[in-house]
Specification:
Blueprint lengths: L2 H23 L12 H17 L3 E7 L5 E7 L7 E7 L19 E3 L2 E3 L7 H14 L6 E7 L8 H8 L8 E4 L35 H4 L6 H5 L12 H9 L41
Parallel strand pairs: 3-6, 3-7
Antiparallel strand pairs: 1-2, 2-6, 4-5
Helix pairs in contact: 1-3
The structure holds zinc ion.
């Protein structure tokens, strides 16, 4: 199929795309049962499953994820020797919150100045319809295999899909992922987003001394929690951060200040270890060395 032919087919499919998007946006698929009945999400999931079945995907089904939501999965086998591309999208949407703050009803697709408004119209139901319209335009003229996933609780961050993928890796094997949960740089300007940044929320606790140490006396060599958190190397899983390791090396065993107060460092005895346990006849600590 030539580029022109493909463009013509897509142009002819646009009214259908708008009708599809209008239907899909009208379903308030907020994946939070405290705000909307879960049946709305099921309705959206079934809409997506039916549409992609009709567009030629095989075995399109709802897959329960550990957070109780239902993703939509399907596939299409590749031609011999061809790669497989995974198409990603999500059908749940952010809650609209204050309906009165909207210029037009959030779950009614409304056109203003040539743009379509409504909750999920862009993120990410518009992209679901994009996948759908692309499949319809290409028909059987597909040079690759497909896997399809419409996530069910992406906006809630409940982790349902993450947990599902870990348990069913084989259902997501692909040579490339097409994640269309993105936007374009400007109206009318096709855009390919080549990298995305995620986020991780975590609490890091660094234990150093048991109390404060006088900066003038101990500042340099004393372990410092803030310095330990400043990365100076590539952390390795299961290992202390290199900065923490370095701090450990800088504090000779037995030289840690017992109470952390300022003054002359007093080496305190270490608990006995297997290698250094004194003979039974002697008491431990044998004596506290003076500095
Ligand atoms: Zn999104």
């Amino acid at each position: 199929m030539s580029e022109h032919e493909l463009a013509d087919r897509i142009a002819a499919l646009m009214p259908r795309a708008k009708a599809d998007l209008t239907e899909l946006v009208s379903i308030p698929s907020v994946a939070d049962p405290r705000q909307y009945p879960p049946e709305e999400c099921r309705k959206a999931a079934q809409w997506v499953a039916d549409a992609f079945t009709e567009a030629g995907l095989h075995d399109v089904h709802l897959a329960e994820t550990p957070d109780g939501s239902a993703a939509v999965l399907g596939h299409r086998p590749p031609p011999p020797g061809a790669p497989t591309v995974l198409l990603y999208c999500h059908y749940d949407v952010q809650p609209p919150l204050d309906d009165a703050a909207w210029t037009s009803p959030p779950f009614t697709l409304t056109e203003r100045d040539g743009r379509w408004y409504g909750r999920g119209t862009a993120d990410c139901k518009g992209n679901i319809v994009m996948h759908l319209t692309a499949l319809r335009a290409l028909g059987d003229d597909l040079p690759v295999g497909l896997r399809f996933v419409a996530e069910s609780s992406e906006e809630q961050g409940a982790g349902g899909m993450e947990a599902y993928v870990e348990r069913h890796r084989e259902q997501f094997l692909a040579d490339a992922l097409l994640i269309c949960d993105t936007g374009n740089a400007a109206v009318g300007q096709p855009t390919v987003t080549t990298s995305l940044r995620g986020l991780a929320s975590l609490v890091v606790t660094v234990s150093t001394l048991r109390g404060e140490a006088h900066s003038g006396m101990f500042g340099g060599p004393a372990p410092d929690a803030l310095a330990a958190l400043v990365p100076d190397g590539r952390p390795r899983p299961g290992r202390l951060h290199p900065a923490v390791q370095r701090l450990r090396r800088r504090v000779p065993a037995g030289r840690d200040h017992p109470d952390g107060r300022g003054g002359t460092a007093v080496p305190h005895p270490r608990p006995p270890t297997r290698a250094s346990t004194p003979p039974r006849s002697s008491t431990w600590p044998m004596s506290r060395p003076s500095s």
